[in-house]
Amino acid sequence: MTIGSDTALVLFSGGQDSTVCLAWALERFSRVETVGFDYGQRHAIELSVRNSLREKMAALDPAWAMRLGEDHLVKIDALAAISETALTRDTAIEIADNGLPTTFVPGRNLLFLGFAGAIAYRRGARHLVAGMCETDYSGYPDCRDDTIKAMQLALTLGLDKRVTIHTPLMWIDKAETFALAEELGGEVFLDLVVEESHSCYLGDRSRRHAWGYGCGTCPACQLRAQGFAKFMRERETTK
């Protein structure tokens, strides 16, 4: 694989998807920085696993350690203040009248990419890497490929500088994301993703399942559990 000389900035929440995206970027760019967002999320525990994940990923591969650069944490308290969602309020996770789950935080990924673009401009990074996905998602409109393409154009025009947004998971499901983790870093990285990354919307790290920690009942946990089960079945059939 050819390593690019450019710097990439990875939107890194500490979840399964962003952790795999970080490994993907470390395989492709000579320098990789990360950015996380504290927006008053109900599952803020995801922020607490980020540093440990970065350190343990660097310890897995000397090349990854050499390429991994600074981390940035941005506080966007206003997002929680203006949002009435199940990720920013202690309310039920269900389908709203508009057909979207109440976990949809309007404008979240648009703001994330805008702030990431500003940091990338300052840091001299032309590439943003993010874990948005249309294959296994809850219908969030700000995860769609068309939205990402529009944001890429807006950032390029607004910054007067070419910005490329990479979404390596856009067309793969959770099972394929687990498979990609193993492909990128072997079984040891796959185990790290399972053990250390956090997806549960309720922020539960008291219960350990085969696929990692979580409540086991929220949509994020169910999606991760189903994906891991499918990955393991497919892994067995190829042996």
UniProtKB/TrEMBL annotation:
A Pfam cross-reference name: QueC
GO biological process, one term: tRNA queuosine(34) biosynthetic process
Biochemical pathway: Purine metabolism; 7-cyano-7-deazaguanine biosynthesis
Binding site for ATP: 12-22
Binding note for cofactor: Binds 1 zinc ion per subunit.
Catalytic activity: 7-carboxy-7-carbaguanine + NH4(+) + 2 ATP = 7-cyano-7-carbaguanine + 2 AMP + 2 diphosphate + 2 H(+)
Binding site for Zn(2+): 200, 215, 218, 221
UniProt keywords, alphabetically: ATP-binding, Ligase, Metal-binding, Nucleotide-binding, Queuosine biosynthesis, Zinc
Segment forming the signal sequence: none
EC number: 6.3.4.20
Keyword Nucleotide-binding belongs to the record: yes
EC primary class: ligase
Matching InterPro entries: QueC, Rossmann-like_a/b/a_fold
Needed cofactors: Zn(2+)
One Gene Ontology molecular-function label: zinc ion binding
Similarity remark: Belongs to the QueC family.
Primary role: Catalyzes the ATP-dependent conversion of 7-carboxy-7-deazaguanine (CDG) to 7-cyano-7-deazaguanine (preQ(0)).
Protein name: 7-cyano-7-deazaguanine synthase
Lineage: Bacteria, Pseudomonadati, Pseudomonadota, Alphaproteobacteria, Hyphomicrobiales
